[in-house]
Design goal:
Blueprint: H1 7-42, H2 48-81, H3 92-107, H4 109-120
Helix pairs in contact: 1-2, 1-3
């Protein structure tokens, strides 16, 4: 008989996907802020307003990274306080695991690997009958 997850497992998975999506969006914003700061520094031509905007971008990036780390370690405690089912499962490791699942679904790398493994099972045989 196939394994069917319980309602608690589905709820935990939904919460983990939400936490992972929030962390992923914050990380993407930090990457954007970093590259924005680099571009502003490179093309500032010594203008103080562009240099100030670049430093501001770096400041916001560091601030959001701090909030992300705080969020990762405060989320399990906050969810335990709110009596959410399975609050022990919402660790930083699990959030990063689900973040990786989101990224592989977005990029489709997993499908490429599976298709290449299926193609290699043929061991030199033609896939289509000609």
């Amino acid at each position: 008989m196939p394994y069917l997850p319980t309602v608690d497992a589905w709820f935990e998975e939904i919460v983990l996907y939400i936490l992972a999506a929030v962390v992923l969006l914050i990380c993407l914003g930090c990457i954007y802020a970093f590259f924005r700061a680099i571009i502003l520094f490179v093309f500032s031509n010594g203008k103080a307003d562009k240099i100030q905007a670049a430093w501001s971008s770096i400041r916001y990036m560091i601030l959001w990274m701090f909030f992300t780390i705080l969020f990762l370690f405060a989320a399990p405690t906050l969810l335990k306080f709110m009596n959410v089912r399975g609050a022990d499962q919402y660790t930083a490791k699990n959030v990063f695991t689900y973040m990786w699942k989101i990224l592989t679904k977005i990029t489709g790398l997993w499908n490429i690997m599976v298709e290449s493994q299926e193609a290699n099972k043929m061991n030199g045989q033609l896939y289509y009958d000609i």
